[in-house]
Structure of NmrA-like domain-containing protein:
Amino acid sequence: MSSEKPILVVVGATGNQGGSVISHFLSLSSSPYALRGISRDPSSSKSVALVARGVEMVAGNNYEPSSLDAAFKGASVIFCVTDFWAAFFDPSQREKAVASGISIGEHCRSLEVRQNRNIIDAAAKVSTLERFVFSSMPNTNKISSGKYRNVYHFESKALAEEYGRAAHPNLWEKTTVLYAGLYLENWLDTLGASALLPPKWSNDRDELVLPLLGPLSDAPFPLYSAVDDTGALVHTILHADPGQKVIGVNEWLSIKDIAIILGQALGKRVEFVQGDLGFDLGDPDLTKEMTEMMEFCVEFGYDGAMVDNTIVKPADLGVPVHLQPVKEWCAKQDWKSVLQVGGN
């Protein structure tokens, strides 16, 4: 790429977090960076769309270190996020897990650790690199002393983070770790069906109904718009001191709070009813993973901050940042199509 601007490389450029980073810097009247996205298939429709917006898209495979060396060449900043769930729901990966005699969660943990170690190793070799932003999660297994050992989509990133800190201390001096909060965008796909976001629409009573699930309903969660706000937060991170762990959060809210805000956005009443703290997501592995995640959040905090006091909030970075209130985010969404409000 021929440019006088420093290069910001985004691993995961076509996803939620990475796409937000790309979109944010493209939205600036004058971006401080030339943007390079990495894709396993630069000819994909999402990649081509980014090229049309002025992004350099290059081939890169997280399982092939040499491809990452080429993709990272000349980078000043690297933002990295990997996808645990693509493999989790891939039938071919489930077959491999069965053949290995392990659960799909264990298998995907191994895959994501491998990806991130390759990315970290490649980033450590970039002589031009000034900052590395690594999207991670807390180690639920370690923090809970093995009580919550099945939250593999957290642990996989945490294990790679621990590897990077130990194996590449010079890189980690330039690194900020980002713990993305509970995606607000999940509501748009799962509200009314997911045990994680339980408000449901009652056509009979024309209201939202929220089952009260004991301590889970009152526990605070970091609600976060990965799509709208990751880019702005990363921009702020790059102006703050490295070496920090930051929680991506618009607001800390309980599930009760979420239901009330959504009711306000819809102009509808919310009724609270007694429910059972028993999840069934139609997949035993997924049910176990998500049940333990929620229980961990109640006991230790979503980001593990009840044990790890090194995690900082965006407002504590020392650089101004505006992340929208959850009510503002809710007001912009098309809830009628999601909830079928007023339908039969």
Q: What stands out?
A: Confidence is low (pLDDT under 50) at residues 190-195. The two ends are 54 Å apart (CA to CA). The CA atoms of residues 25 and 120 lie 23 Å apart.
